Amino acid sequence: RGYNFGRHYRRMVLPPLPSSVATRVQLFGRLTRMDQEFSEVTYVTVVPKRTILELLHDRHATDDAVQASIDQLGRRFGHLAEAMLGATACATSCASAAAG
Question: Which of 21, 19, 14 is nearest to 63 (CA)?
């Protein structure tokens, strides 16, 4: 945490870390920067068999899959939510204007 790997590294090797999806996304994002020197970046997770780290890695895989599904739903249906929120905001402000 707190490091900007952006320009200097092209590969990150680490064990499964006890962290949330958001923390892992931020960590990986620190390696992928606009001013990065390398066109390709590789992430390698080392998982020792039959250890607590293997269980943690399995949990991460499930959490990451759920997050990917949520992201896909947002891209697919986000415009509907925005339209509904816009209609709600308009109905609230229109009602306030009519009452006032």
Answer: 21
What's the CA gap between 54 and 48, in Å, rounded? 6
Q: Quote the pLDDT of residue 2.
A: 45
pLDDT at residue 12 is higher than 70: yes
Helical segments of the chain, H only: 21-29, 52-99
Distance, in Å, from the CA atom of 6 to the CA atom of 35, rounded to the nearest integer, reads 7
- What is the sign, positive or negative, of the torsion defined by CA atoms of 65, 68, 70, 73? negative
Residue 4's pLDDT band, with cuts at 50, 70 and 90, is low
